[in-house]
Amino acid sequence: MNTQDVNENASPMPAPENTQQAAPVGNSAEKTLFCSKCGRQLLPDSRFCNYCAAPVVTAMGTADTTGTIGAANFTGGHQTYGGAFQQNTYAANNFAQGAVNGYPYQQQYPSFNAQPGGMGMGMGGFASPMVSPLATDPRFNQFQKSALQPGQREIVRCTQVSKSYGNNNALSAIDLVIGSGRVIGLLGPNGSGKTTLIKLICGLLTPTTGTITVNGVPIGAATKAMVSYLPDRTYIQDWMKIRNILDYFSDFYADFRRPLAETMLANLHIDPEAVMKTLSKGTQEKVQLVLVMSRNASLYLLDEPIAGVDPVARDYILDTIIRAHNPNSSVVISTHLITDIEPVLNEVIMIKYGTLALHGDADLLRNTFGKSLNDIFKEVFAGC
Question: Which terminus has fewer CB within 10 Å in the chain: N or C?
Answer without folding.
Answer: N
